Amino acid sequence: MDNLGELLHGFTIAVTMPHLLLMVVGVLLGILVGVLPGLGAPNGVSLLLPLTFGMQPVSAIILLSSMYWGALFGGSVTSILFNIPGEPSSVATTFDGYPMARDGRPTTALATAFGSAAFGALVGVILITFLASWVAQVALAFGPAEYFAVYFLAFASFVGMGGAAPIKTVVALAIGFAIAAIGIDTVSGSVRLTMGIDELVKGVNFVVAVMGLFGIGELLVAVEEEFHARAVSSRIDWREVFRAVGRLPRHGVALLRSAAIGCWMGITPGGPTAASFMSYGIARRFSRRGRYFGTGEVEGIISPETADHAAGTSALLPMLSLGIPGSATAAVMMGGLMIWGLNPGPMLFVDQKDFVWGLIASMYVGNIVAVALVLLTVPVFAALMRIPFVIIAPLIVIICVVGAYSVSNSYLDVVMMLGFGIVGYLFKKLFYPLAPLVLAIVIGDKAEDAFRQSMLISKGSLGIFFANKLVTCLVLAGIALLLLPLVLQLVGVLRKPATGSTVEEKVTI
Amino acid sequence: MISRRALELATAILTGGFGAAVVVSSLDNGIGWSSAGVDAGTFPFLTGIVIVLGSLYNLVRGVLPAATLASVPVAITSLELRRLAALFLPAAIFVAAIPLLGMYLASALYVLAVLAIPKHQSVPRALAMAAATALALYVVFERMFQVSLPHGALAAAFGF
Question: Which residues of A are less than 8 Å from B17 in CB distance?
Fold first, then answer.
């Protein structure tokens, strides 16, 4: 356990007054960019980067990674309060977080999300601490076939769920795949599905689709139901924050399972988005209250949030140990590493022990600082729910418009966002499920690329998906998850024939 | 007043149309197997086919007087339709005005119009909120994070 000794040394570097201050500043800025639409951790990190050139590399990475934690937490705020997920990985949080907030429990929803996110991040850091070298090897074992198998697993765990009319689910999923394919095809380099609009070469950004589908779509559904006089708790109750966090251990199984899924998806480069969707899907299937998911269930918030942060944290490891950035933010940070004169890669652990272990120690401390700060802000954010609908509605429209525009400075994106809003409204009204649609938009083209690359390697033989133990296990697990609902349904039909399918339709996301 | 059936039909036609467009468009990229592996158009082509077939199924189900659909004949009442329009039309006008007026002016006018015209707020308060919205956008995006929002053709004409 010489790792432990190194870690303790790392703490002596991370826990100093200047570094703690940097963490507070970083986290606060991170929360700000996380909450604001269209801005995300990559914006914040790139803006702060020039400021860090004069700093010690350790201080610089502490500032930037704290900002990253803050942004991760902040991203959940808008998902829960306004149904606008700021980043792909917090989409799954909206499924139960928003209904709960709308139900008059925004404080509980936010506190639960932050608490479970912190737990997930902690598990991720512990994993990094003890399994750094092993994890690096696993990531290296991943070829296109394994990538595809991981994405397949994520789809399988999420899509097979009952609820919506099956054909509507299939249509939603296929539309998502088609939207993901728009733009330049990364395998062949050719331009696809632009339908005569040249600007579509850049593709349809996920944020644009989600702001419309969830933000505007939800607004249209809400205005129709006229919930302007919602009785949201008029008084902010501080104790509710702690009560919600205190209730978390009761959902220990969900926490541990989600953290495990998150870590696994973070190391295998499935990423936080696939992790959160998969965790939600599995929780919905195995929870005793799975039927109520989508109506504001606590475990429906815990599962995606824990997995998201566990994956986000453990995904930093490939960046450090292999020099492969797992996300846009990590890519910007890696640029920073090089400017500070450090070379990411296996040698970093040998040459720059102080830096690496200082960073890992700062992940522990930084996350504690972040969760403390973010819990303090819960009442402030929860108060936003008390603003009357007539005022908040135009503000949400502006948030979505500005967010869609600032993704790539494109007016076409704004128009498309509005179009997605109408689609979101129609789909919601007619019980088409939105979740498979979004999941396909986010990881559809990656899955397709992985599949085609494996086909190139194997010269068209599907045998590549059963070529070694790792990929075979992944594929078999995916198939099992796909077939499970069918089997369960069959068992259910045999047990008690035809009972209320109307209830099922209601809980569809 | 819009019936559930009409809404189902319209949506099925919308998705089916998108599917058909995807199928046609993907043919340009080639479908099948070539020296470069699976052609770029293959997956979009297949998804397009799936969308079209699924939409046809939904279309037929929407026309047939199936039990679940008959139980909710009305999807949107005329009152709800008016509320929807009251939210969506100003938003659409706001988006349409952005290229001319720019993000700041358009959003300020949008807030002002939505709050003051239906008399949700008094005119001075609505004015204050409109100004605050534009100012907040400017400070946060243009100043703090150096993300440039569109200034509009009008501002360009005056040399901004």
Answer: none
Q: pLDDT tens track of chain A, all 509 residues?
A: 567 787 888 888 888 888 899 899 889 888 888 877 667 777 777 777 777 777 888 888 888 888 888 888 888 888 888 888 877 788 889 889 988 988 888 888 999 999 999 999 999 888 888 877 676 666 677 788 888 888 888 777 766 555 567 788 889 989 999 998 888 887 777 788 778 787 888 888 887 888 888 888 888 888 876 554 454 554 566 788 888 888 889 998 999 999 999 988 887 767 788 888 889 988 888 888 877 888 889 999 999 999 998 988 887 776 677 666 666 677 777 777 777 878 776 677 777 778 888 888 888 888 888 888 888 888 887 777 777 778 888 888 998 898 888 888 889 999 999 999 999 999 988 888 888 888 888 778 888 888 888 888 888 788 888 888 888 888 898 888 778 767 777 787 777 554 444 334 434 44
Task: Please indicate whether, in this complex, the C-beta atoms of A401 and B121 are within 8 angstroms of each other.
Answer: no
**Are residues A129 and A349 in contact, defined by beta-carbon separation less than 8 angstroms?**
no
Search chain B and give the residue with CA nearest A193: B25
Residue A154 phi, psi (nearest 5): -65, -45
Cα distances (angstroms) measured from residue A264 to each of A369, A436, B14, B41: 25, 21, 39, 33
Q: How many helices (H) and strands (E) does chain A have?
A: 23, 2
Give the residues across from B33 on adjacent strands.
Answer: B38
Side chain identity at residue A302, one-letter code: I
Side-chain half-sphere of A235: how many Cα atoms within 13 Å?
A: 4
Q: Is A426 on the interface with B (CB under 8 A)?
A: yes
> How many CB contacts within 8 angstroms connect chain A with chain B?
176
In contact, B51 and B13? CB cutoff 8 Å: no
CA A62 to chain centre: 22
- Of all residues in chain B, the one with the smallest CA distance to A503 is B68
Report CB contact under 8 Å: A426, B14: yes
Interface test with A, best of B68, B119, B139, B145 (most A CBs within 10 A): B145
Using the CB atoms, write b or e for B75-103: b if 16+ within 10 Å.
Answer: bbeeebeebbeebbebbbebbebbeebbb
Taking alpha carbons only, the member of A437, A423, A47, A425 closest to residue A206 is A437
Structure tokens at A53: 């050139």
Give A-chain residues touching B61 at CB under 8 angstroms: 167
The ipTM assigned to this model is: 0.91
Which residues does residue A183 pair with via DSSP β-bridges, in sequence order? A192
- 3-state helix, strand and coil shares in percent for chain A, rounded to the nearest 5: 80, 0, 20
Chain A environment of B40 (Cβ under 8 Å): 185, 187-188, 190, 192
DSSP B149: P
Sort strands B37-38 and B33-34 into parallel, antiparallel or unpaired: antiparallel
CA distance A185 to chain B (A): 7
Instruction: Give the three-state DSSP class for A99.
Output: helix
Residue type, B105: L
Contact A170 B15 (CB under 8 A): no
The shortest CB-CB distance from A168 to any of B58, B88, B150 is to B58
